[in-house]
Design brief:
Blueprint lengths: L5 H11 L1 H6 L3 E3 L1 E9 L3 E10 L2 E10 L14 H8 L1 E2 H5 L4 E2 H5 L7 H19 L4 H6 L11 H7 L2 H11 L20 H18 L3 H21 L19
Antiparallel strand pairs: 1-2, 2-3, 3-4, 4-5, 4-6
Helix pairs in contact: 10-11
Length: 253
């Protein structure tokens, strides 16, 4: 995303697509290029309008309250990398047409009616896909990396997927010394992806060494409490219609 185009894209979405998003329970975060919805009190869903390698695209994502929250992509270095790695691309998933920012903003107006209507179609597909997500298993099925991302150990745990969890725990236990060289884990979670990843790695190591999934139960509870507090502070509108209760992760078979 070229930052200079964010304002123009925000104006386009506000004029053309905001009403549809609001009617489907989404609220804008920061501006109209990024929308959030809380579903079933446990799942955060994101719809993102984004200029990806010059293509104007719609992306979507679902995650549990026990995971690192990937909204506010602009806070991360390498925005294209974050979006490409974590978000699901509507155009690629459903085989839709694609066009550039210039196609839509030609002559500085919204005159390219066919293109804006096609983006409505992209948005419809994104909402349809997110409407089908109600459980951890549904989230895992939409994972853009075959359900084996090491940072998603809480998702695989809550889904009860032991085979994928074992793979993820092993991969998650690796710490890059360039980013963290202490033998002691971070004291608490923070809105810093690197530190969150390190905290996850220490938990994964502890689970593997002690062969005790109760450690992961405690970690999912800690993550959920942290994210609920953060979201209530930063995006209080998510909580106007429903309240999430702090509950323990289900036991694995």
């Amino acid at each position: 995303m070229r930052r200079k185009n964010i304002a123009a894209l925000n104006e386009l979405v506000e004029q053309q697509y905001a009403d549809k998003l609001r009617k489907n329970g989404f609220i804008p975060y920061r501006d109209c290029t990024e929308w959030l919805r809380l579903k079933n009190g446990e799942i955060v869903q994101i719809i993102l309008f984004y200029e990806y390698h010059y293509w104007l695209e719609v992306f979507f994502y679902s995650e549990l309250l026990t995971e690192f929250q990937w909204f506010d992509y602009r806070e991360h270095k390498g925005m294209d990398g974050i979006v490409g790695q974590h978000y699901c691309n509507v155009r690629r998933k459903f085989g839709l047409d694609v066009f550039t920012m210039n196609d839509v903003f030609d002559s500085g107006s919204w005159s390219i009616w066919a293109k804006t209507q096609e983006l409505h179609r992209h948005l419809d597909y994104a909402i349809m896909a997110l409407d089908e997500v109600n459980t951890p298993a549904d989230i895992a099925a939409l994972d853009v990396n075959e359900g084996r991302k090491p940072e998603r150990i809480c998702l695989y745990y809550e889904n009860g997927d032991l085979d994928t969890l074992r793979i993820a725990l092993k991969n998650a236990s690796v710490i890059d010394p360039m980013y963290y060289d202490s033998d002691d884990p971070p004291e608490r979670l923070k809105r810093d992806w690197r530190l969150w990843q390190v905290k996850t790695a220490f938990v994964a190591r502890d689970v593997l060494n002690r062969q005790n999934l109760k450690i992961l139960t405690s970690f999912t509870e800690e993550c959920r409490r942290y994210n609920i507090a953060y979201l209530k502070r930063k995006v209080p509108e998510l909580w106007t219609t429903s309240e999430t209760t702090d509950k323990a992760a289900p036991a694995l078979p």
